[in-house]
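go over my protein:
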Amino acid sequence: MSLKRLLQPHSIAVFGGREAREVVRQCRRMEFAGDIWPVHPSADEVEGLR
C-alpha cells in the first residue's frame, strides 16, 4: 500500500473558520501546488479562494 496520495495530495479541503485561513496561508507559503478547497461556515471565500 502506497502512502503517496496521503503525503503528496493533488488537492486538499480545509474546513473551519480562523484555523482554515491559517492552513491556507501555510499551504501557500510552502508552495503547495495542488488545489485548495476552503469550506467556511459563513464566508463565501477564504484568502481569495472559493
The first strand starts at residue 11 and ends at 15. The CA atoms of residues 12 and 36 lie 5 Å apart. The mean pLDDT is 91.
